[in-house]
Amino acid sequence: MSVTIKDVAKKAGVSPSTVSRVIAEHPRISLETSRRVKEIMEELGYHPNLMAKSLVSRTTRTIAVILPKPAEELLLNFFFYELIRGVLAQLTRAGYDLLMAGGSNEQEELETVTRLVRGGRVDGLLLLYSRSSDPIISFLRKEKVPFALIGRSLDYEDVPSVDNDNVQAAYDATNHLIAQGQKRIGFVSGPTKLAMTQDRMAGYSKALVDAGLPVKQSWIVEGEFLLESGYRAMASIMSQPEPPTALVVIDDVVAFGVLKGLAELGYRIPQDVAIVSFNNIALSELTMPPITSVDVGTYQLGYTASQMVLRMIQQVEITTRQIIPHRLVVRESSLRTVTHV
Amino acid sequence: MSVTIKDVAKKAGVSPSTVSRVIAEHPRISLETSRRVKEIMEELGYHPNLMAKSLVSRTTRTIAVILPKPAEELLLNFFFYELIRGVLAQLTRAGYDLLMAGGSNEQEELETVTRLVRGGRVDGLLLLYSRSSDPIISFLRKEKVPFALIGRSLDYEDVPSVDNDNVQAAYDATNHLIAQGQKRIGFVSGPTKLAMTQDRMAGYSKALVDAGLPVKQSWIVEGEFLLESGYRAMASIMSQPEPPTALVVIDDVVAFGVLKGLAELGYRIPQDVAIVSFNNIALSELTMPPITSVDVGTYQLGYTASQMVLRMIQQVEITTRQIIPHRLVVRESSLRTVTHV
DNA sequence: ACTATCTCCAAAAGCGCTTTCATCATCCCA
DNA sequence: TGGGATGATGAAAGCGCTTTTGGAGATAGT
Prior knowledge:
The structure is a homodimer.
Chain A: H1 5-12, H2 16-23, H3 31-44, H4 50-57, E1 62-66, H5 73-76, H6 80-93, E2 97-101, H7 106-118, E3 124-128, H8 135-143, E4 147-150, E5 161-164, H9 166-179, E6 185-189, H10 195-210, E7 220-222, H11 227-238, E8 246-249, H12 252-264, E9 274-278, E10 292-295, H13 298-313, E11 321-324, E12 327-329
Parallel strand pairs in A: 1-2, 1-3, 3-4, 4-5, 5-11, 6-7, 6-8, 8-9, 9-10
Antiparallel strand pairs in A: 10-12
The structure holds a DNA duplex.
């Protein structure tokens, strides 16, 4: 059916081993033979069978990305594409393929990972924003398979991961509000089981404390990465007797909900309530007003995490925790003096 | 190193062939033997080597999704995740894996596909919104590999594909505006090399003609799937002496640009200019005002297309072109009588 | 001229699995 | 009681590749 290494060998008048060596660019092969074999390969349209290759080499040149369970999905909804683009760019560069897998629950997820790893299907893995006590992480460590996290894990500090400095990011964002003269600043948070949430919360608090401002617990509301979540959190915060005049919001999508809710209640943004947020997804600049957001370098996160796994596969020493720089993108939602273009 | 079928066989006191048959649930195996072998497999933590399996079975139980080239990416940015979720759900159900691949240009893309197909790496493929004269399509047809398109191809009408009835969708959307009393309706289009664009344009025109309204070429502007594109197209249309009072926009992201531009020029929406759009991404309901949009069933597109490929692999007869129903989601941007919640 | 060294290549084994073919009990019915 | 089914298993070949081993011929050293 398909043309094999044998067919090439026969036609070129050499042995299969020689053809194999030509493909692998083995040094001890004469230039003449190499040229002739390559010519025949071209002529026959030969492509090596990747399964056979993998079987003997015990390597598949593929990395799996494990999607978070449905409950965690919403965070990714808008920067998932950018992330994957980053991953794909790095892997393609290195001649690796990308396998995507997931599961509808923890059990299923672990089974899938086990099957892929023990079945010799992948050379490494990438985990997205895992929550606390992830059994997959324990499993992968035991198996000694190269893998990296995107977003730090709370329970396994020494696991290779790529992350932002979320404490500093939140510190910067909050400070920006303080620099605008804000004194009453609330925080719309995310699930506290995520390191990302805890870090941003910490940075927010630290900025307030450093500026001598009060940290009021009633101004801090935990939510999910959902639109409605932002809406509800906002309602809860603003219905208090002395509501804040500025909000730090865990994520852009949540911020959209906040924004909308505020507008419906008649608050003007940023005059009555200023807003800063995180992740800087493409639509942040399109809302009315555009949202000030911390760009976390989504593409870079994917790109760097993949690189990390590839390095581990090549046994190259790596920094266990890599930090992607963030950047506050100031837009209208946080500015006291509103400037129109 | 890892436990193989031989290890299981030895420990169970049977031959490797028997173990293999137990795994494959071969009928002619005694219940007793089956039970014992399964027990041993469990005990040893046996997982079959998938590469070896693939080599001999000539099947990999994996489907590749080919991402469009970077230039086409933006369309997908926001509904990519939903699409992939649909694909993944179907594939996981059937015990298949998902491989993601792409390329930075046409040449590279074709090389990747060739490598995957000829290398026996995948059993089938899924192509996203391909443009005209795609060399990959020709290649795959020649190779007789099962594959399906998401979004119809302009050049290969008989290729298996999953699509919306975009003509009808645009017809419905436009008619909705007409029902609101609109008479001057423009169209912000996308790249005409996509079937989707041409279909929506046709539906738009048909609705106007059927209602006895004029189709003015100067009210139809081609753009890309970009924010700025919507902005520019809007500017071009609205700067005319007699601008339309309603716009049909090819995609939500473009519509955001239109929305923003209109607001900056002082137009009120929907009072001065009404808007309907397509794709109904999650943020459509979050803009000010929320955008009326045609829901195309993104998840379903992915789910159904995968099913199609799986059916082809199983040699089951399929309908060459499957249509996912659409649904107009009416929101404030298109309503003459504005109702506040 | 004879051995030592080097270069290039072929033969063959083996990766972990499936599957064909053969074998051996067991069973049923004449 | 014997012979053809039938059922359960084992032996062995082979999927397409890599890699080890070893050998033939060329080149160099003494």
